[in-house]
Specification:
Layout lengths: L18 H7 L9 H11 L6 H29 L4 H5 L47 E6 L6 H10 L3 E6 L5 H16 L3 E4 L14 H7 L2 H12 L4 E5 L1 H9 L1 H4 L11 E3 L7 E9 L15 E8 L3 E3 L2 H9 L3 E6 L20 E5 L5 E4 L22 H9 L2
Parallel strand pairs: 1-2, 1-3, 3-4, 4-11
Antiparallel strand pairs: 5-8, 6-7, 6-9, 9-10, 10-11
């Protein structure tokens, strides 16, 4: 049998505090993939196990998972010890976890924040693209794990545009290189690039969008994207997994492919430590983007979400700057239309309840909600307006 000793073979010895890192590690407490959830799963399986020997094994493993939870607790404690109240408040990633017993170890976020600020920005008329089209085309690249390409294509076509689905082949290096050339050529024949949702690379830890990001950084594709955005006035959209790729590429919020650093916004694990799938309410904060040109700031729309890594985080100063420039496009809101940190309305714990952001000129738009999944006669029992018109707005932007 497993004998639990309060001793680690390799003791945790962390010298420097890092509340941002602590906010990520805390997620390993709960949820079905957290240490507590794993322990309960193994211990519960004992009751249906017919073999006594295996019951003992499940007891050992379940108890060991509790030991892992203590290791997580030790890491979190050492990353946050001796933080002052001001240190916590100034760190936007860790602040939602701060509770009245200071920096003690705890598995869930503090009570939902009330009175969260709603961002509002009303833009002027959207500038016309350099190249117009009677029937603008959207290129929809399909990567391993993509699963929303057909819904995305239908949404574009229903809005009056054309859509090309192009599968990226990756069985070997030659196929990847050939796919990069095909995508680059397709971009030159399109007015929009839409990176659909899915689980690229199996959604491995901190891996959402990694392959997509590497692919877009290849010289041929990068050059084609730059030409589309800088010379032809094209549009880009990333939904869910696509948003994860856009933000790791720097296309949001910078409008170009850049190397990210610690000051850049990112998307990380949901605060509850597991995948979320539901319909949420989102409020339009800004109509800066051509994708949202015909919406009114303050409008609320119901949209499905499905992700495990959708929590938007960024330094406080960066969020303020994005909001002032109209780059915070949408926020998660409650039934009263107010931004919320309550998991019932903000499914991933995004800071300032941010659901979507744009590039400085609004032409690149990244969001977590699956707006492409709306069509007539689906989820009719859900209240609210489900169509924000973003695909029609994009098509109309190019039309002659």
């Amino acid at each position: 049998m497993f004998v639990y000793e309060k001793r680690l073979q390799y003791p945790v010895k962390i010298k420097n505090t890092n509340p941002k890192l602590a906010s990520l590690i805390i997620s390993q407490y709960g949820g079905p993939d957290g240490e507590l959830g794993a322990s309960l799963r193994y211990l519960s399986q004992r009751y249906s196990m017919p073999y006594p020997e295996l019951k003992g094994l499940l007891t050992d493993i379940g108890t060991e998972e509790l030991g892992h939870m203590e290791m997580v607790a030790a890491i979190v404690h050492q990353l946050t010890r001796n933080l002052s109240d001001e240190d916590v408040r100034n760190n936007s990633a860790f602040a939602p976890y701060f509770v009245d017993h200071t920096t003690g170890v705890y598995p869930t976020a503090a009570a939902a924040e009330s009175g969260l600020e709603p961002f509002t920005y009303t833009a002027g008329p959207v500038a016309a693209p350099a190249v117009r089209a009677a029937k603008p085309k959207a290129l929809i690249p399909v990567f391993p794990g993509t699963n929303c390409e057909y819904d995305t294509a239908r949404a574009i076509i229903d809005a009056g545009g054309d859509a090309e689905i192009l599968v990226v082949r990756n069985l070997n290096a030659e196929q990847v290189a050939a796919s990069a050339q095909r995508v680059a050529e397709a971009i030159r024949a399109a007015q929009m690039i839409v990176i659909p949702g899915g689980f690229s690379g199996g959604d491995e830890p901190d891996g959402s969008g990694k392959f997509i990001t590497a692919f877009f950084r290849s010289p041929a594709v990068r050059e084609a994207v730059t030409e589309l955005m800088d010379r032809r006035g094209g549009l880009m959209l990333g939904i869910c997994n696509g948003f994860q790729a856009l933000i790791k590429l720097g296309l949001v919020p910078f409008g170009r492919i850049v190397d990210a650093d610690e000051s850049c916004p990112t998307l990380t694990f949901n605060t509850i430590g597991r995948h979320q799938s539901s319909i949420v309410r989102t409020r339009v904060c800004s109509n800066l983007s051509p994708w949202l040109a015909e919406t009114e700031p303050g409008g609320v729309y119901s949209v499905p979400i499905s992700h495990g890594e959708g929590r938007f985080i960024a330094p406080e100063a960066v969020i303020r700057s994005l909001a002032e420039r109209g780059q915070v496009a949408t926020q998660y809101v409650d039934l009263d239309g107010a931004p919320s940190m309550d998991t019932a309305f903000n499914p991933n714990g995004s800071l300032y309840a941010i659901e979507g952001i744009t590039s400085p000129d609004g032409r690149v738009f990244g969001k977590m909600g699956h707006s492409e999944r709306y069509s007539d006669n689906v989820y009719k029992n859900v209240d609210g307006n489900k169509d924000n018109g973003m695909f029609k707005n994009a098509v109309d932007y190019f039309k002659i």
